[in-house]
Specification:
seven-stranded parallel β-sheet; alpha/beta; 274 residues
């Protein structure tokens, strides 16, 4: 895969794995993350194994910053062939204490409920997940115009289809990512730029670890509910996303595929609960 691939959110658990895998296939990988140290460690690991990679500090909510990083990537590697939009996440200010309405929620002051979700926190989650796709796409897709074999891969979530309790902003934002993926695919279809998404089910990452495990490492009641709702009865492993990633990015295998979001979820989306 002799491509220049830009991965945002590359310092995180899932997207660092994407970057390592793509580099192992011969791609030149630009790792973008606000946490330059985390992305740098991933890049160092790739280079140590003989791959080609470089980390860039980038705020994916600041278009001017993205444009500045774009110029650096152009100078270091050339034009972007593939963009993987992996930046995203939730915010504790948008995580409700209760899974369902409890009497008194409307007047509660000491816990977070639907009625006192922080508006700025809600905006941040939407911006991080949706603008975090929009803005890098606006910048790096300029490289793809008039060239063959280019594509965009967004990271959505099963939250987009089955919104989870307690995290309304994240669920709604990922639904927007899935919708925007389809819109973008149609908009650029005749230009030959394919746009698809992966919707991971439950994978343990930095952003959800506190919801899934107690401080002593034991599973929370939420983990028990998740595993009961996942027919395979376990969390996914990061490497189990890589086959779908490779398929969607390889135009020789999926050249007529655009506008779809592929669930990788251990059967979560197929299970009715009974």
């Amino acid at each position: 895969m002799e491509k220049v691939i830009v991965v945002t959110g590359a310092g995180g658990v899932l997207c660092s794995g994407f970057a390592e895998f793509l580099a192992s296939k011969g791609a030149k990988v630009a790792l973008l993350d606000l946490n330059e140290e985390a992305a740098g460690k991933v890049a160092e690991g790739i280079v140590a194994k003989g791959g080609i990679a470089k980390a860039y500090k980038c705020n994916c909510l600041d278009k001017a910053d993205i444009e500045a990083v774009h110029e650096k990537v152009l100078a270091d590697f050339g034009k972007c062939d593939i963009l993987v939009n992996g930046a995203g996440g939730n915010n504790p200010k948008c995580t409700t204490a209760h899974e369902e309405y409890v009497k008194g929620d409307e007047s509660a002051q000491d816990i977070l409920t639907f009625f006192n979700i922080d508006e700025k926190g809600f905006d941040f989650v939407f911006d991080l997940n949706l603008k975090g796709v929009l803005l890098p796409s606006q910048v790096f897709m300029t490289d793809m115009i008039g060239r063959k074999g280019c594509s965009v891969l967004n990271v959505s979530s099963m939250n987009a289809y089955r919104p989870l309790t307690k995290i309304p902003a994240y669920s709604a934002a990922k639904a927007a990512v899935t919708n925007f993926t389809s819109w973008l695919a149609v908009h650029f279809a005749k230009e030959g730029i394919r746009v698809n998404a992966i919707a991971p089910g439950f994978f343990v990452s930095n952003q959800n670890r506190a919801l899934l495990f107690n401080e002593d490492g034991t599973p929370t009641p939420r983990t028990d509910k998740i595993l009961r709702s996942t027919p395979m009865g376990r969390f996914g492993e990061a490497e189990e996303l890589l086959g779908t990633l490779e398929w969607l990015l390889d135009e020789t295998k999926s050249g007529f595929v655009t506008g779809i979001t592929v669930p990788v979820d251990g059967g979560f989306s197929a299970y009715s609960g009974v």
